[in-house]
Design a protein that fits this description.
The complex is a heterotrimer. By secondary structure, chain A is mainly alpha-helical. Among the domains of chain A are: 32 residues; 145 residues, Cytochrome c-like domain (Cytochrome Bc1 Complex, Chain D, domain 2), CATH 1.10.760. Chain A contains nine helices and four strands, in the order ααααββαααββαα. In chain A, a hairpin with a 7-residue loop joins β3 and β4. In chain A, α3 crosses α8 and α6 runs antiparallel to α8. The longest helix of chain A has 30 residues. Chain A is extended. By secondary structure, chain B is mostly helical. Chain B has a two-stranded antiparallel ribbon. In chain B, α5 packs across α10, α11 packs across α14 and α11 packs across α15. Chain B is globular, with a radius of gyration of 23 Å. In chain C, a hairpin with a 2-residue loop joins β2 and β3. In chain C, the strands form three sheets. A three-stranded antiparallel beta sheet of chain C has the order 1-9-8, with no helix packed on it. Chain C has a three-stranded antiparallel beta sheet with strand order 2-3-4, with no helix packed on it. A three-stranded antiparallel beta sheet of chain C has the order 5-6-7, with no helix packed on it. The chains are: A mainly alpha, B mainly alpha, C alpha+beta. Chains in contact: A-B, A-C, B-C. At the A-B interface, α1 and α9 of A face α4, α5, α10, α12 and α15 of B.
Chain lengths: 284, 430, 190
């Protein structure tokens, strides 16, 4: 009985699927899928060659500090970093006094102790980086109807995030005459994808056009450690900084991992040896 | 409950005797996973996976209880509380990554455990109850894993909750009412998050209870073995301890090594970047996919695109997806072959290999963007999945001529075929 | 183990544990090693309950005390606990100094409990040392108890104007946290 009923149910599913296959194939023939501009012209991130990549890779604190400087002087105008506290910056090599100075440079929401009205005060190390806009409506209103996303987790919220940020920041191109690696010209193949007013063409962005204008130019930020003031360096440094802000415990993680793996490899050998000894004389 | 030659518990220490006389828990443990449980001597390393599943269940419960000390099940702060764990709680990042990747390891180990059961016919009489309880555990695990994935309240959490509760809206007539009841609202929000957290905390203990029943039911007939031939004499068995505790120790070491490599060097490999974006009810991610362990079932859901027999495509998909798991309950009666182990079933073995490849293909299709080619392959693979269990298996088990079975486990062992793995057997018999 | 030996045909019998110590050594070693691992892994699982980094970061509080007139006190918070800052009047200081230290349950002078040249500033936690209730006396019009300092309504501990325990069940004086004057009118606690 189970087998008969099961067979009927199975036949039902198979028939429904066979009709589905017919449907899929006839659709495929009558409406062959169109290549999309996103598919043909979207670029995967370029490799920036970060120090923290790989099993033994570590953050470079001087690079992270430069990245923080770029964030403060460029990105922070529109993008918040709301999950990071100023005290966290100790991990990238700042002293307590330096933390206080950095925190003081930001105004955080507070309450006027006399009137109870909303006010601001200087930041303290225990504060988080403040929001840039009071709410999404304000963010949209100030940015041509686009919300600048929070950057705290950006490097983990995109595939290959650090390289993605680096590629995006340095990836703005002139759309007219833009060709992909195969030599196809975007606007010839997909004239309808011409960048609308107010957006900017960037092949590293999923939809090819984004609201953020090219944010960095050579010479815009002055580094104090002698690193060349180029847009490429800014992009690389701020991407590294945002990787740190997304994954601040990476150093501890890799160190603990190294010890754990050594411990477990030794355990595997011991366990295998014990198994061999115990099973000695028993054929299995 | 056991073989007549099973060793009896003899307390070594007067204190243990005192306890055992009053509460025979030491005796119970001894008979369940100690020297008092005789086990076929020819089990191969695939038999490690039951113990490994138990270990990962325990690890999930421990890390989960600890995470619940810091997590806040409130839609307004759930995402930030997870980041608080990652950034501020002592070793919080380790505990959270261990829990997230522990779920993947648990499911991976259970999938191999199920495949082991399929290959060696562990679902057949007299072990049907072991299998049925196993399918119950699997269903509970899937529910628990899904609800756990919702808790961080990122984009994938939110849209996963939306899509999966959407399954219930396919039920004719009352579907939408049920969906709203499940969510406690018209879209996932605080009420849904809170109840998912409550159930996510509860269900692992239900799983633990069913696991105990699963092991109890296993101990009635005793463990199956790679030949599928029942234990006939004392020669066929060795005591579980120390023989299989030692063998399981090797598996534990290797499994933890893989687990540690994931936690410490690729903690987000199996996750999805979109879940690091806070839930946004107004914007669906471009490409939503479930966690890897649900992908084959997701592919089955997506394969049904055509209304047929007054049943809309959406309902076909949902029925097929649940059916693909529920049919496992009937497996012991769909397969009528008296031979258990695929080592001695030349025809069944071929179809089983096809099924394993088929499920991997479905897994790939489940995660791929729906181009016509992907849909077509998904439909073909889904046909095979159902045909395998509901059409091919009953027919094969009637028509097939099995190879001669050894008279006993010991005979097979002495002939050098006791604990060979499927790949070795396949090579040896080609 | 006899059964196992029987299971192996003669000639194939590998001599049963020739060196039993080595066998034990490996098994015991593996179990001991696993025990070490379990112990190490237990540490983070226990330590996660200690205060997290954000809680520790709030462990200093800066207060502006310029608005507190003699005889007044304020309640602030320090590590999520009430903190009393009291500007003592000369009379209160005199009362505190007049009390013989040897009579006290927890002998301390007012000098011990204040900063040099700032004897009028009494900074204590507002946590009764008995079982943690908040004593009265810091707020306007609250009962200051029989010794004019603080009075805990839970179990009747009475503190004097130096925050010292004078009667009731509390074992020690109100705790003076670590603090310093970073200017004449600002203190930093913690």
């Amino acid at each position: 009985m189970v087998r008969i009923l099961g067979g009927l149910v199975g036949l039902g599913f198979v028939l429904a699927l066979l009709l589905g296959i017919y449907d899929t194939v006839s659709n495929w023939i009558s409406n062959p899928p169109q290549a999309t501009a996103e598919h043909e012209f979207h670029e995967h991130p370029r490799k920036a060659g970060f120090s923290f990549e790989g099993v033994l890779g570590k953050y470079d604190n001087r690079q992270l500090q430069r990245g923080l400087q770029v964030y403060k002087e460029v990105c922070a105008a529109c993008h918040s970093l709301r999950l990071v506290s100023f005290r966290d910056l100790e991990a990238i090599g700042y002293s307590e006094g330096q933390l206080k100075t950095i925190a003081k440079g930001f105004q955080v929401p507070s309450i006027n102790p006399e009137t109870g009205e909303a006010a601001t005060r200087d930041g303290l190390p225990s504060d988080r980086f403040p929001l840039v806009y009071a709410n999404d409506v304000a963010a949209r209103a100030a940015n041509n109807n686009a919300i600048p996303p929070d950057l705290s987790l950006m490097a983990k919220a995109r595939h290959d995030g650090a390289n993605y940020i680096y590629s995006l920041l340095t990836g703005y191109r002139e759309q007219a005459g833009y060709k992909n690696e195969k030599g196809e010209e975007l606007l010839k193949q997909f004239p309808e994808t011409k960048t609308p007013e107010g957006l900017h063409f960037n092949p590293y962005f999923a939809t090819l056009n984004l609201a953020m204008a090219p944010p960095i130019q050579d010479g815009q930020v002055t580094y104090s450690d002698g690193t060349a003031a180029t847009a490429d360096n800014y992009a690389k440094d701020v991407s590294a900084f945002l990787m740190w802000s997304a994954e601040p415990k990476m150093g501890a993680r890799k160190t603990a991992g190294f010890a754990s793996l050594i411990f477990l490899v030794i355990f595997c050998f011991l366990a295998y040896g014990a198994k061999k000894q115990i099973w000695r004389g028993v054929k299995d | 409950m056991s073989f007549p030659w099973a060793k009896q518990y003899e307390p070594k220490h007067p204190l243990m005797k005192w306890v055992d006389d009053r509460l025979p828990l030491p005796r119970f443990v001894y008979n369940a996973v100690g020297a008092g449980y005789p086990v076929p001597r020819n089990l191969n390393y695939f038999w490690n996976f039951g113990v490994l599943a138990g270990m990962f269940l325990a690890l999930q419960i421990v890390t989960g209880i600890v995470l619940a000390m810091h997590y806040a099940a409130n839609a307004g702060i759930a995402f930030d509380s997870v980041e608080h764990i990652m950034r501020d709680v002592n070793a919080g990042w380790f505990i959270r990554y261990a829990h997230a990747n522990g779920a993947s390891m648990f499911l991976l180990v259970v999938y191999i455990h199920i495949a082991r059961g399929l290959w060696y016919g562990s679902y057949k009489a007299p072990r049907e109850m072991v299998w049925l309880l196993g399918v119950v555990i699997f269903l509970l695990m899937m529910a628990t894993a899904f609800m756990g994935y919702v808790l961080p309240w990122g984009q994938m959490s939110f849209w996963g909750a939306q899509v999966i509760t959407g399954f219930f809206s396919a039920i004719p007539g009352v579907g939408e009412t049920i969906r709203v009841w499940l969510l406690g609202g018209f879209a996932p929000d605080n009420s849904a998050l809170n109840r998912f957290f409550s159930l996510h905390y509860l269900l692992p203990f239900v799983i633990l209870g069913v696991v105990i029943l699963h092991i109890w039911a296993l101990h009635i007939p005793g463990s199956n073995n790679p030949t599928g031939v029942e234990v006939k004499s004392e020669q066929d068995t060795v005591p579980f301890h120390p023989y299989y505790t030692a063998k399981d120790g090797v598996g534990v070491g290797v499994a933890l090594l893989i687990f540690a490599a994931l936690i410490f060097y690729a903690p987000n490999l199996l996750g999805h970047p979109d879940n690091y974006i806070p839930a946004n009810p107004l914007s669906t991610p471009a490409h939503i996919v479930p966690e890897w362990y649900f992908l084959p079932f997701y592919a089955i859901l997506k394969a049904f695109t055509f209304d047929f027999l007054w049943i809309p495509a959406k309902l076909w998909g949902v029925l097929a997806m649940f059916g693909s798991i529920l049919l496992l309950f009937f497996l012991p009666w769909l397969d009528t072959s008296p031979v258990r182990s695929a080592n001695y079933r030349p025809t069944y073995r071929i179809f089983l290999w096809i099924l394993l490849v088929d499920v991997l293909v479905l897994g790939y299709i489940g995660g791929a963007a729906p181009t016509p080619a992907v849909i077509l392959i998904g439909q073909i693979a889904t046909i095979y999945y159902f045909a395998h269990f509901l059409l091919i298996l009953p027919i094969v088990s009637m028509m097939e001529r099995p190879r001669p079975l050894p008279n006993s486990i010991t005979e097979a062992v002495l002939a050098g075929k006791g604990g060979t793995s499927p790949a070795q057997t396949a090579l040896a018999t080609e | 183990m006899a059964t196992l030996d029987e299971a192996v045909p003669p000639g194939e019998v590998q001599d049963a544990p020739a060196d039993p110590r080595r066998r034990d050594y490996l098994a015991i070693g593996a179990v001991a090693w696993a025990g070490v691992g379990a112990g190490v892994i237990a540490l983070p699982l226990i330590n996660q309950m200690s205060p997290s980094a954000d809680v520790l970061a709030l462990s200093t509080t800066e207060l502006d005390v310029s608005a507190i007139q003699p005889g007044q006190s304020i309640k602030a918070t320090f590590r999520k606990q009430p903190l009393f800052v009291r500007n003592l009047t000369p009379k209160e200081i005199a009362e505190a100094d007049a009390t013989p230290v040897s009579d006290l349950r927890d002998p301390q002078t007012l000098e011990d409990r204040t900063k040099p040249d700032k004897k009028n500033w009494l900074v204590t936690l507002g946590v009764c040392t008995h079982l943690g209730c908040v004593p009265l006396g810091a707020g306007e019009g609250e009962n200051k108890g029989p010794f004019g300092g603080y009075f805990c309504p839970c179990h009747g501990s009475a503190y004097d104007t130096a925050g010292r325990i004078r009667s009731g069940p509390a074992p020690t004086n109100l705790t003076v946290p670590e603090y310093e004057f970073i200017s004449d009118t600002t203190i930093r606690v913690g």
